[in-house]
Amino acid sequence: MTAAIGSSLLLALAVLTVASCAGRDTPARYELGRAATPQEIAALDIDAAPDGHGLPPGHGSVAEGAALFQQKCQQCHGANGEGMAPAFPALVGRDPKGEGFAFANDPKITKTIGNYWPEAVTVFDYVRRAMPHTAPGSLSNDEVYALTAHLLAANKVIAADATLDSASLVRVKMPYHDRFVKDNRRGGSELK
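Predicted structure:
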């Protein structure tokens, strides 16, 4: 068989394949899944922005958070939030090598809430969505405020006798807040 005959046969086979597919009814939809219910969407639409938009009502104290931490968090993060590397990172503490925000020069420096997180609201948001590891999203708003208060107090960001709610949480300034560049991309409601 010459190359020209082989090419002609391949072209004919391709034309027959396309022609046979064109006759089939291709469904517009594949009938997989279903539309999410408004309740399902509301359960997942719980983001809280650094400016406090999306924070729910509720409150919690450092003392309440310390008790909750021992019940629900210490088995992974250690009794004092020291972590269990590499699976469960440290939450509390400041590596002296990280002072001055030297993380770009040494990626091995331990990053904790107290020495790396730029916004206190994001601590709340993360705990609310992802913790505890075995049952994410199961904490009440009061429990999340309390755990956030405990974690911020343990990192010496707020006083040990503080109570947080949406108004006070927004006012918390993290130690290295000014080391981060604001994300000025547009998004959210104006894109809907």
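Summary: The mean pLDDT is 87.
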